[in-house]
Inverse folding.
């Protein structure tokens, strides 16, 4: 990420929040905002449009994890969670809630920069994977529609698959549309005629 980072720190203890802010400013060019409680966390985080969210919590509860799921915007930004000790199943729940980095033994100012870098890198990799998966799903759906449209043309005109695709492609070029769009229109129209 280019330029100064906008960081939201969720920390209930005021003195720890100040120490975190000092640690962040000592290691990176950033704009830091503190949120002191978990009530309405989603709305509060969204107001700052942060590049990353750092959450420091001693013993996260189920309610905290649910609020985190709503608040973290796992598809929007990386989230790093710092906890005091390992709790059974908590790491998995945190990752399912959208946490990019889960650090046991609390937040140490000297570890902030490497954790932030790792959380951002992991988030970017996961976002790329989600985008590729979405693109693959879209392409498969388009392929299914094109295959259905070819089948309709083959049946209606008594032509082979190659000729059916050539007709779809020509219609798409003539109309300035994608082959998948023309195919979808044909499938929809055929559905209406049945």
């Amino acid at each position: 990420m280019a330029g100064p980072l906008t960081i939201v720190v969720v920390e209930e203890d005021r003195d720890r929040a100040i120490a975190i802010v000092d640690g962040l400013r000592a290691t990176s060019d950033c704009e830091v905002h503190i949120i002191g409680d978990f009530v309405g966390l989603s709305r509060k985080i969204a107001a700052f449009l942060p590049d990353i969210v750092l959450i420091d919590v001693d013993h996260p509860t189920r309610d905290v994890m649910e609020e985190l799921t709503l608040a973290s915007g796992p598809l929007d930004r990386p989230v790093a969670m710092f906890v005091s000790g390992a709790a059974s199943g908590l790491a998995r729940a945190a990752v399912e809630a959208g946490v990019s980095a889960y650090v046991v033994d609390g937040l140490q100012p000297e570890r902030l920069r490497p954790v932030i870098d790792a959380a951002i890198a992991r988030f970017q990799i996961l976002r790329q994977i989600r985008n590729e998966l979405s693109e693959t799903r879209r392409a498969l759906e388009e392929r299914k529609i094109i295959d259905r449209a070819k089948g309709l043309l083959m049946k209606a005109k008594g032509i082979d698959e190659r000729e059916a695709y050539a007709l779809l492609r020509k219609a798409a070029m003539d109309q300035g549309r994608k082959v998948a769009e023309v195919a979808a229109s044909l499938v929809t129209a055929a559905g209406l005629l049945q």
Q: What stands out?
A: Strands lie at 5-10, 30-35, 52-57, 79-83, 101-104. The two ends are 54 Å apart (CA to CA). The CA atoms of residues 103 and 193 lie 60 Å apart.
